[in-house]
Every structure is written in structure tokens, then in C-alpha cells.
Design a protein that fits this description.
By secondary structure, the chain is an all-alpha fold. The chain contains two helices and no strands.
């Protein structure tokens, strides 16, 4: 059962990191298109749409990260493994 809990935690971590990377890429490309010296208004509008979509995605990603964290916590409780971040106390 502990293997399942570590698998779920690892999967959640990888998916979340990938999603945040995609958010950052979309946000960056949006600002590059919006600020580019291109006289085509449609391209600038598309850049603005990318920025708005990236900000909305970041909000939902933050909510999803909280849900994933709750799922990982429940999986750790059911698997019997210790919490991921335990404070280290020096003697």
C-alpha cells in the first residue's frame, strides 16, 4: 500500500510541475506576442488572450494543487507512510 501512496505522490508532483511549466510558457509567449513590434492587431489580441487564459489557468492550477495535496495526504494516511515534510530537529 505504501508503494501506491508514493506512486500517487510522485505522479501528482510531476503533473503539477508540468502544468506550472506550461503556464509559464503560455504566459511568456503571450507577453512576447502582445509586446512585439508587429503591426498586426490580431496577433497582439491573440497574445492578450494567451495572457488572460494563462492567469485563469494559474488560478485553477492553484486550486487543483490544493486538491492534489489533499489526495496525497489521504493516500499517505491510508498507506501508513510518514508525511512528506517533517521538520528536522537537531539535538
Amino acid at each position: 500500500m505504501a508503494d501506491i501512496a508514493s506512486f500517487v505522490t510522485d505522479l501528482i508532483t510531476r503533473i503539477t510541475a508540468l502544468a506550472w511549466g506550461l503556464f509559464f510558457l503560455t504566459w511568456t509567449v503571450g507577453w512576447m506576442l502582445r509586446g512585439a513590434p508587429i503591426p498586426i492587431l490580431r496577433v497582439k489580441r491573440y497574445g492578450q488572450n494567451l495572457i488572460e487564459d494563462a492567469v485563469a489557468a494559474a488560478f485553477w492550477l492553484a486550486v487543483g494543487t490544493a486538491v492534489f495535496s489533499l489526495i496525497a495526504h489521504v493516500a499517505r494516511l491510508m498507506g501508513g507512510s510518514p508525511p512528506m515534510s517533517s521538520p528536522i530537529v537537531s539535538p
